[in-house]
Amino acid sequence: MMSATLDLAPLRAAVRDVPDFPKPGILFKDITPILADGALFKRAIDAFVESVRPLEIAKVVGIDARGFLFGAAVAYALGVGFVPVRKKGKLPYSCQSAAYTLEYGEAVVEMHSDALQRGERVVLIDDLLATGGTAAAAVKLIGQMGAELVLALFLIELEFLHGRRNLPETAVRVLLTF
Ligand code: AMP
To answer: Residue 83 belongs to what domain range?
Structure first.
């Protein structure tokens, strides 16, 4: 667990386990109870902001879809821009894209081709690090744009899936590990 000043135990307690969603054998970590509770949502955002503020980043990059909820709030708190990474076909303007492997087949994520400037310091935010495939594709996009990934930040890490192996080791931080 990662916070210098905030007690994260109430956040951990609020994560709801939903067995066999979206398919048999998956234990889904549902963060909507955190979103629905004003004090918990604030605590989660405050913990994210505490990690990011000293890094003097220029933009928050959030991953479709729950990364938008946390990432946008962090960007607002820091007064910096927010950039969405979305599944292929959702963004209207010209895009950079990166493919990644799923259990069956491949998926593609996209970012608008003018969303990041060369050399810009960015933090990547999502709710949960599982296999790391999605985040690794987002990291690839950030690299393709010539921006600098300063930190990849997650509310939850499923440690047994070793998603960190797919990400730059020094640049990962999580608030809750399961
Ligand atoms: P991955 O690419 O395997 O790291 O998957 C990460 C993405 O899938 C994140 O955007 C998560 O929101 C979602 N995800 C994967 N596994 C779970 C899980 N067990 N519970 C909740 N969300 C999950």
So the answer is: 56-177
